[in-house]
């Protein structure tokens, strides 16, 4: 897929705008890509060109990330809200079904969406280095929520300012393992001009994202959510140098393997942001998975082809 063939546009949401970038074909329903916590659509910039050319990729930015609108003052972010953004996109284009690819917390949002809407609405899911809501004790979630309340009331610190030359050497804080060059697509989505110093810039991140709500379920609810995911082609890729997918997720693996015959698991060598540092490794698994479950010869439902007029 040619990474230069894309269009940028926004979709309206109750709180503002959702920033979108559609790569490749716009004649059929695309693969919807959801980035991770504190990242943006730049996460997929090196992976998208390696994916099959017959299927477009629609990258979106979650609220408070990249160029999407932040939430109004006094409100808190949550994983449930990220799932609602997927629904906003699906309803905007009037898709009958959606194909999903998520990295990190984006993979959790995809997992929740699949558990809410099931096979009738999700025809493929690719999860990169996270799987579902973590299995934690009730006391963990109670303490987490109490801490979130306190941090919500803490004043936001002033952002670090950069000159244009300094920005060229800036690193991406949430992904310290990637190089400066690899960080540029993420940084470019977040650069803002300092209002009082026009010659200076800052990297925008909504500080409220640090204390988002995890949607505190019990272990039983996490299992029940994943039991609702049936007969969906589901690929999970774990990064070897990351602990985001650990032994605590074994019950989820057992459930998903049992209920989804087209379930695949792969171990990628690299860090949590391996989709940026070594996208070729991931593409070797993702490309045949897409070709198998969304092949070039497959015709979409007629109601799903009218995408160009919605941009």
TrEMBL record:
Show the SUPFAM superfamilies listed in the entry.
alpha/beta-Hydrolases
Entry keywords, A to Z: Hydrolase
Q: Where does the record place the AB hydrolase-1 domain?
A: 30-130
UniProt keyword Cytoplasm, yes or no:
no
Does this UniProt record's set of keywords contain Transport? Answer: no
Which Gene3D superfamilies does this one have?
alpha/beta hydrolase
Top-level taxon in the UniProt lineage: Eukaryota
What are this entry's molecular-function GO terms? hydrolase activity
Family label: Belongs to the AB hydrolase superfamily.
What protein is this chain from? Probable serine hydrolase
Source organism of this protein record? Drosophila arizonae
Gene that codes for this? LOC108614517
């Amino acid at each position: 897929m040619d990474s230069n063939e894309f269009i940028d546009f926004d979709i309206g949401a109750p709180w503002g705008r959702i920033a979108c970038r559609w790569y490749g074909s716009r004649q059929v329903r695309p693969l919807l890509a959801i980035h991770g916590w504190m990242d943006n659509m730049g996460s997929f910039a090196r992976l998208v060109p390696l994916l099959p050319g017959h299927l477009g990729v629609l990258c979106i930015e979650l609220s408070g990330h990249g160029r999407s609108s932040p939430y109004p003052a006094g409100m808190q972010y949550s994983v449930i809200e990220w799932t609602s953004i997927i629904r906003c996109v699906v309803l905007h284009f009037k898709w009958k079904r959606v194909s999903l690819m998520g990295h990190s917390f984006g993979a959790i949002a995809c997992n929740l969406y699949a558990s809410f809407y099931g096979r009738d609405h999700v025809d493929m899911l690719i999860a990169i280095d996270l799987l579902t809501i973590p299995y934690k004790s009730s006391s963990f979630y109670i303490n987490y929520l109490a801490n979130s309340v306190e941090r919500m009331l803490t004043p936001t610190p002033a952002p670090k300012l950069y000159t244009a030359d300094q920005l060229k050497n800036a690193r991406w804080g949430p992904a310290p393992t990637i190089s400066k060059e690899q960080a540029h697509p993420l940084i470019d989505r977040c650069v803002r001009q300092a209002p009082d110093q026009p010659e200076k810039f800052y990297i925008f991140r909504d500080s409220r994202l640090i204390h988002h709500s995890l949607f505190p379920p019990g272990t039983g609810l996490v299992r029940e959510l994943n039991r609702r995911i049936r007969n969906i082609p589901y690929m999970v890729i774990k990064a070897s140098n990351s602990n985001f997918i650990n032994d605590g997720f074994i019950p989820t693996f057992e459930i998903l393997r049992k209920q989804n015959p087209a379930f695949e698991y792969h171990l990628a060598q690299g860090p949590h942001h391996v989709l940026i540092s070594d996208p070729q490794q991931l593409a070797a698994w993702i490309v045949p998975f897409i070709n198998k479950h969304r092949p070039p010869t497959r015709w979409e439902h007629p109601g799903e082809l009218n995408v160009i007029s919605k941009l």
